[in-house]
From TrEMBL:
Signal peptide: none annotated. Residues 4-113 form the HIT domain. This is Purine nucleoside phosphoramidase. InterPro entries: Histidine_triad_CS, Histidine_triad_HIT, HIT-like, HIT-like_sf. The active site is at H99. GO terms for molecular function: hydrolase activity. It is an enzyme of class 3 (hydrolase). Keywords: Hydrolase. Its EC number is 3.9.1.-. The keyword Hydrolase applies. Gene3D superfamilies: HIT-like (3.30.428.10). A motif (Histidine triad motif) lies at residues 97-101. It comes from the Bacteria.
Amino acid sequence: MSTIFTKIINREINASIVFEDDEVLAFNDVNPQAPVHVLIIPKKEIATLNDLTEADAQVVGKLHLVAAQIAREKGIAEQGYRVVMNCNEQGGQSVYHIHLHLMGGRQMSWPAG
């Protein structure tokens, strides 16, 4: 089943892309929760963190490397930023294609609960 992220990868849906290579795509979130809010996804379809295998370790690491690169490019690396990956419904995952949220540009608070 194709997700919205697959459609973005395939250019069936437009996105404001900030990074792309053979394995990873990053684009600005359409509903940002911070002044900088970028979604970083593998081009390989992996539904949840629970579906990762040893073969996926390199690309998951690369998601974090790309997040740090984008944070530097956006000027938020020194002051700090947050990276978050949600898993399944109770973890807040709404698109079943793993994705890393890079958020910054303001003081991030820890959610209550």
